[in-house]
């Protein structure tokens, strides 16, 4: 009797129930991701013939042979130094602008700021009219447009001026920083803030004492991560004409002077490596070792303020503020932007002209069809690139994490992989694309590979840091219970670090999507290539249509990435 | 609800706190239902009752951070429903609150947390400047001396023990210099040996500086030993509101009895 009672209901629900639970959360994400990667590989042209340009191998051999004989003449070393300083000064100036935008924008798009202004409304529910949501959506557009596109537009309005590079870097970075700052502010515990507000302190003052000090380690930590990004972006902007290391690398590459190129790349490696190293140390001192918390559950980052080692943390902050106060004016002085151009009548006129030509966008049926197929190609490029970067990133991250015991073999592998990853990420994606185009015929695949290599360097490092910061006790407990290192890794380390790693990969997908544009500039296909052609033929109606397609694509990718990160949390 | 003689009230024009039929609802949940009470200057009142009885909500109403969904709330004689945000802040400056979790900024030095008591009076520029070079150090030092940790002025707050952090929170209220001090479970996060010290400190400071005290407590012994009046809350309602001497064990048992 009891068996019939229990078996009857089970029989009726057997079929759908397991399927539903099977497809829930992480598994659904996994299946969709695998299908998407397979589709992207086909779309990107992986299985088409004629991929490899055999004639290019001679150039590749020359290129690598040149690594042993970098150009070391005093004149060229001086040029390299100047180019490095220009790139660094652009990065610092752009970053300074972005932090100002980010702080103001972050405050305005944070829930806690607006709620502090009217603390007496209980349990306020966010509606579409909530001021912080309006501010957030206003920042979504500048954020979705890559620095390089900003650069190409600004150069037409402001002419060739260092101002272009600073604005092109500062505006989108500012919008990105504003979003992250607002998230950090909203995730910071509010108990002290509420205590001050309840005691009658006005909102700004209450935040200054109750919330900002507590958020400061995380804000600073993220700013340092942005400095790493700013160096990379300043190099990319150089490639499209702003000068500095990126520009010199491109010149040397195009004139086939590989020895020069290796000297410049070494400088880039040193600059990038020093920034990354400094950033890691400072973030550690501030108690916020995780570079960016993209897992949406930032409880671990929220209390960096409490975790920070007090003395070194506040000393680090003081040094940083002093450094910022010295470096920013110095950088501005070095690059000499013509601020007067911002308010010049000619600027207003050119801006007006361009806006008039941009509307209405070219939405003719023929163009829309092109945009659809190129959007699919662009999406495929981003998916394929990040899937590759993620796969190899995870594989390389474990040897790239600082080994617990300093065995010689592990340390050697650690150093080698770290340098390899640094090399991958220090070279901008468009330069990788040009190198890959030596040996491959133009098309979306070389573009995707370029993005993959660049992002491999970033993802490998991010995941390695996640591994370093992961709880070591479960794996240690397994080893003490007699498990082999491989078993301890599979059951102790991997399950802890995998969700964070996947979150990073999805997050980089958002960035990779934006980067398809810049490899498109050097002819690697997708919407970026179309945009380059339209810009050079002054087809502004077409440019607007392409930008709209890019914006839509970017928003879709952002939404999917956010949903996926939430599902695997 | 008050069982005190009404004649006393009519002699004094304004009470520190006056609630008439106050209800607070969070969605379907009524945290407070039809609560009426008066608290006069200089009283020492304990709020007791089981978890979820509405003690914290009542304290929130008393410091102006929780707006009632029904009834009338007068803080220092002002009807909160009629106050602008700015006027409400003026009233709130006269009411200091000590919290169970201290509600301090952990990575600021003690002096800044204590100086945060000035924020209602300081300008934004002065407040910002003081974070770089601390201002009014003597006031802060005196407040810390009053709470017995004079040597901790430049210590990082998160490095202090729970009891010491609560003393910093009390020093912040002293700098704020309010008319009344509210304390929401001030000793629940502190080890038992330090609890008596904190309660005695609160009581002595209120006596010496002539401030009204309303404190919610889980530990009943302190309600008897450190307060003059006990308000028993259960399920958002006032079950009794009596001078300490008139509270019987039977009343307390009813207050905490698990509903059948």
Brief synopsis:
The complex is a heterodimer of chains A (569) and B (260). Chain A is mostly helical and 569 residues long.
Describe this structure in words.
With 569 residues, chain A is mainly alpha-helical. Chain A has two domains: 25-69 and 374-569, MetI-like fold; 77-357, MetI-like (MetI-like fold, Orthogonal Bundle). Chain A has helices spanning 2-13, 16-22, 26-43, 57-66, 74-108, 111-117, 131-144, 147-158, 162-187, 191-198, 203-210, 212-242, 245-254, 258-285, 299-302, 304-307, 310-335, 340-343, 345-358, 365-400, 408-426, 429-439, 444-469, 473-480, 485-521, 526-536, 540-567. Chain A is globular, with a radius of gyration of 25 Å. Chain B is of the alpha/beta class. Chain B is built from ten helices and ten strands. Chain B has a six-stranded mixed sheet, with helices on both faces. Chain B has a four-stranded antiparallel sheet with strand order 2-1-4-5, covered by helices on one side. In chain B, α6 crosses α7 and α7 (162-176) runs parallel beside α8. The longest helix of chain B is centred in the C-terminal third of the chain and has 18 residues, at 192-209. Chain B is globular and about 55 Å long. Chain B starts with 5 loop residues before the first helix and ends with a helix. The model of chain B is unreliable at 1-11 (pLDDT under 50). The chains are: A mainly alpha (569), B alpha/beta (260). Chain A binds chain B through residues 117-123, 191-192, 194-202, 204-206, 208-211, 213-214, 216-217, 305-306, 308, 310, 313-314, and chain B through 26-27, 63-67, 85, 88-97, 99, 101, 103-108, 112-113, 115-117, 119-120, 122, 124, 127-128, 131, 156, 158-159, 169, 173, 176, 178.
């Amino acid at each position: 009797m009891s068996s019939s009672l229990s078996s009857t209901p089970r029989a009726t629900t057997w079929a759908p129930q397991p399927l539903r639970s099977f497809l829930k959360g992480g598994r659904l994400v996994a299946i969709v991701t695998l299908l998407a990667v397979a589709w992207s590989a086909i779309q990107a042209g992986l299985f088409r013939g004629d991929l490899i340009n055999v004639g290019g191998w001679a150039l590749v051999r020359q290129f690598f042979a040149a690594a042993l004989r970098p150009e070391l003449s005093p004149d060229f070393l001086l040029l390299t130094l100047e180019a490095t300083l220009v790139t660094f000064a652009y990065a610092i100036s752009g970053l300074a602008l972005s932090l100002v935008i980010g702080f103001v924008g972050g405050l305005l798009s944070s829930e806690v700021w607006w709620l502090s202004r009217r603390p007496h409304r209980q349990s306020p529910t966010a509606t579409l009219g909530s001021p912080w949501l309006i501010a957030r959506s206003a920042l979504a557009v500048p954020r979705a447009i890559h620095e390089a596109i900003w650069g190409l537009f600004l150069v037409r309005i402001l002419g060739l001026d260092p101002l272009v590079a600073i604005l092109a870097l500062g505006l989108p970075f500012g919008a990105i920083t504003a979003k992250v700052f607002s998230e950090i502010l909203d995730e910071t515990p509010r108990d002290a803030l509420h205590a001050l507000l309840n005691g009658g302190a006005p909102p700004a003052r209450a935040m200054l004492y109750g919330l900002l000090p507590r958020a400061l380690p995380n804000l600073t930590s993220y700013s340092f991560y942005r400095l790493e990004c700013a160096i990379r972006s300043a190099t990319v902007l150089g490639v499209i004409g702003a000068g500095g290391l990126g520009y010199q690398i491109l010149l040397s590459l195009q004139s086939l002077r590989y020895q020069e190129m290796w000297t410049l790349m070494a400088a880039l490696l040193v600059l990038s490596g020093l920034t990354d190293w400094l950033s890691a140390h400072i973030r550690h001192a501030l108690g916020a070792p995780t570079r960016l918390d993209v897992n949406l559950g930032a409880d671990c980052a929220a209390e960096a303020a409490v975790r920070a080692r007090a003395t070194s943390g506040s000393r680090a902050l003081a040094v940083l503020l002093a450094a910022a106060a010295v470096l920013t004016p110095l950088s501005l002085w070095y690059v000499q932007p013509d601020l007067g151009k911002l308010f010049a009548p000619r600027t207003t006129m050119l801006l007006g002209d361009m806006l008039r030509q941009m509307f209405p966008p070219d939405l003719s049926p023929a163009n829309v069809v092109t945009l659809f197929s190129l959007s699919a190609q662009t999406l495929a490029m981003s998916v394929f690139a990040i899937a590759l970067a993620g796969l190899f990133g995870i594989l390389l991250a474990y040897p790239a994490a600082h080994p617990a015991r300093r065995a010689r073999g592990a340390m050697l592998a650690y150093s080698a992989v770290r340098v390899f990853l640094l090399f991958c990420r220090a070279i901008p994606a468009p330069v990788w694309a040009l190198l890959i185009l030596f040996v491959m015929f133009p098309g979306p695949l070389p573009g995707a590979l370029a993005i993959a290599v660049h992002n491999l360097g970033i993802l490998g490092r991010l995941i390695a840091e996640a591994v370093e910061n992961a709880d070591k006790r479960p794996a240690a407990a397994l080893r003490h219970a007699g498990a082999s290192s491989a078993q301890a890794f599979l059951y102790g380390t991997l399950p802890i670090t995998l969700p964070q790693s996947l979150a990073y990969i999805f997050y980089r997908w958002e960035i990779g999507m934006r980067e398809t544009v810049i490899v498109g500039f050097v002819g690697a296909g997708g919407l970026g290539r179309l945009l380059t052609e339209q810009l050079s033929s002054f087809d502004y109606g077409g440019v607007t249509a392409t930008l709209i397609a890019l914006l839509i694509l970017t928003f879709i990718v952002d939404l999917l990435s956010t949903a996926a990160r939430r599902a695997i949390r | 609800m008050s069982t005190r003689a009404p004649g006393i009230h009519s002699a004094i024009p304004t009470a520190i706190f006056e609630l008439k039929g106050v209800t607070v609802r969070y969605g379907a949940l009524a945290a407070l239902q039809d609560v009426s009470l008066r608290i006069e200057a200089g009283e020492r009142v304990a709020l007791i009752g089981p978890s979820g009885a509405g003690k914290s909500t009542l304290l929130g109403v008393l410091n102006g951070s929780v707006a009632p969904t029904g009834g009338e709330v007068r803080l220092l004689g002002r009807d909160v429903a009629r106050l602008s945000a700015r006027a409400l802040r003026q009233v709130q400056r006269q009411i200091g609150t000590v919290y169970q979790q201290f509600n301090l900024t952990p990575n600021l030095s003690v002096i800044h947390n204590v100086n945060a008591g000035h924020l209602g009076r300081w300008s934004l520029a002065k407040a910002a400047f003081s974070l770089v070079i601390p201002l009014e150090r003597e006031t802060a030092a005196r407040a810390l001396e009053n709470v017995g940790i004079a040597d901790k002025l430049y210590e990082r707050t998160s490095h202090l023990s729970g009891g010491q952090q609560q003393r910093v929170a009390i020093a912040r209220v002293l700098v704020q210099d309010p008319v009344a001090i509210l304390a929401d479970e001030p000793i629940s996060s502190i080890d038992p040996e330090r609890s008596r010290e904190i309660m005695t400190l609160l009581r002595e400071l209120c006596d010496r500086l002539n401030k009204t005290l309303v404190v919610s407590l889980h530990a009943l012994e302190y309600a008897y030993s450190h307060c003059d009046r006990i308000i028993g809350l259960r399920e958002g309602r006032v079950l009794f509101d009596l001078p300490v001497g008139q509270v019987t064990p039977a009343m307390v048992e009813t207050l905490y009895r698990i509903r059948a």
